Amino acid sequence: MHEREYDIVLFGATGYVGRLIARHLLHHAPGDLRIALAGRSLNRLEAVRRWLGGEAVSWPALRADSEDIPSLQEIARRTQVVISTVGPYHGRGLALVGACATAGTHYTDLTGEVLFVRDSIDCFDRAARNSGARIVHSCGADAVPSDLAVLTTALAAHQAGDGHLAQVDAYWRDLRGGASGGTLASLAEDIRARQTDRDKARLAADPYALSPARDDEPEPRTVRNRLHVGRARSIPHWETPYLLSAFNAQIVRRSNALTDWSYGRTLRYHEALTTGRSPLGAVRAGALATGQAALVTGLSSAPTRALCRRILPGPGQGPSEICLARGRFMVELHAETTGGASWITRFGARKDPGYTGTAAMIGESALALALGEQLPDRAGVLTPATGIGNILTDRLRAQGFIIDTRRESGGPEPTPTP
401 vs 17, 284, 358, 394, 395, CA distance in Å? Predict the structure, then answer.
C-alpha cells in the first residue's frame, strides 16, 4: 500500500463506543501513528478531541457522512485503515466498504449483522482482493472471542499432532456487562430486514450463510445451533441461547472455509451462555432465555420497537465509568479432535465485553492492520482470524486479555508437528 496521509481514520468517533476506541488509540498507538477522527459534525468531533486531551487535541477532524458517498471515498483514499462504528450497518454501511475495497484501504467494524456481511462479500470481495484491501468485519465482542479462540485451538491441536477439530462447544461464562446501544440497534435492523424479505430470512438462518462456497458446505438441516435451555454438552452447567451465538458461528465457519477448512472439514460448532450447575442455574437459564425472546419479540413490531427504543440504550449511549470498571467476560471453548484428544481454550478479560473490551479488540485490530505486523497473506472480505490472525491474539494478550489453551485428555500422546 502506497503512502497515505493518515494511518487510521476512526469514523463514528462521536458515539459512545467511538469515544472509547479513540481513547484506546490515544493510550496504546505508537506516538508517530497518524490518527484522524471522522463524523458528521465537526463541532462534536472537536468536543471529542477536548475530552480525550493530550496528543488527541491535534488529531485532524474530517467531516464524513454515511449518506455522502464522496466524503466516504475521500477518507478511504487518504488513510491506510478505516474503523467504522456507524451502525446499523445494513443499508447504510455498504458504501464505505465499497470505498475502502476500491481504494485498497483496510477496514474494520463492529457489525453483528449477517445480511450486511453477506452483501459486503457479494458486492466487494473481488474488488478488495484485486486492490489488496482487507475488509475485516466483526472486530468486537462479536466475533473476536469466538473466532480467535477457535483459531488458537486448531493451531495448538495441529501442532500437537491431534488432527483437526471435530466438535467445538464455546461457552460464555462469568459475563458481566451489557450489549451496547449500537448492538441493539443492529439487532433491530437485522430483525426488520428478515421480516420484510423471506429470502433474506432464509439466508440469515443458514449456518453457512457467510461461506465463500455454499455448495461445498452441508445442507442447513444437517447443522443447527441448539437453541434451547438445558444441560451443556461439555461441562456440568446449564446453558441458554446467546443472542450473538448464531452470528459468531457463521463467522467461525467462514474462517474455516477461507483457510481451506484447516480447522476440520466436518467441524461442528456450538455456542451458548452458561448459568451455573445448581438448580438456581436452571432458573437463571430460563429467565435469560425468556428475556432474550422478549427482546426479539419487542424489536419485531413497530409499536413495541418504539417502546424498546425508549427504555433500552440507544446508539451513542453507554454506562458510567464505574459500571465499565466492573465489567468482565470469559469464553471457555471445549474442543474434541479427530485424533480423540480434548482441548480447552479460554478467551476473556476484566473488561466490559460490549464497551471497553470491544474498544480494545477493534482498536488492536486496526493497529495491527496499520502497522502491517505479520499479517496473513490474504485480501478480500475477511474475518478477524483470517484477516489479522495470531498477531491480534498477541496484541490482546499484551492488553491483559487471557487467551490460553491446554490439552485436557484423550487420544494417544501428542506428536508435535514441525
Answer: 19, 27, 12, 9, 9
Pairing verdict, β 134-136 and 380-382:
parallel
- Residue 362: its H or E element: helix 356-371
| Residue type present at position 380 | G
The CATH number that domain 6-140+356-391 falls under is 3.40.50.720
User: At residue 215, does pLDDT exceed 60?
Assistant: yes
Grid coordinates standing for 233?
A: 454438552
For 155, list phi and psi in degrees, rounded to 5: -65, -40
Cell of 252: 467461525
Please tell me the chain's helix, strand, coil percentages from 3-state DSSP, rounded to the nearest 5: 45, 20, 35
**Distance in angstroms (rounded) separating the CA atoms of residues 274 and 269:** 16
For 71-81, how does the pLDDT look when each residue is reduced to its tens digit (9 = 90+)?
Answer: 999 999 999 99
Secondary structure element (H or E) that encloses residue 82, with its range: strand 79-84
Closest alpha carbon to 354 in 146, 209, 184, 101: 184
**Rounded to an integer, what distance in angstroms lies between the CA atom of residue 104 and that of residue 380?**
10
Q: On the CB side of 175, how many CA atoms lie within 13 Å of its CA?
A: 19
Give the C-alpha separation, 134 to 127, whole Å.
10
* pLDDT higher than threshold 70 for residue 380: yes
Model confidence pLDDT, tens digit, residues 221-272: 555 555 578 899 899 999 998 888 999 999 999 999 999 999 999 899 999 9
pTM of the model: 0.92
Of 54, 148, 210, the residue nearest 365 (C-alpha): 148
Output Rg (C-alpha) for the chain, integer angstroms.
Answer: 21
For residue 417, what pLDDT is reported? Answer: 46
Q: How far is CA 251 from the centre of its chain?
A: 8
Residue 402, beta-bridge partner list: 348
Lowest mean pLDDT among 182-191, 196-205, 268-277, 328-337: 182-191
48: pLDDT strictly greater than 80: yes
Where are the chain's structural domains?
Answer: 6-140+356-391, 144-353+399-409
User: Residue 163 — left, alpha, or beta (φ > 0 → left; ψ -120 to 50 → alpha)?
Assistant: left
Which residues on adjacent β-strands are paired with residue 36? 9
Residue where the block lists cell 459512545: 16
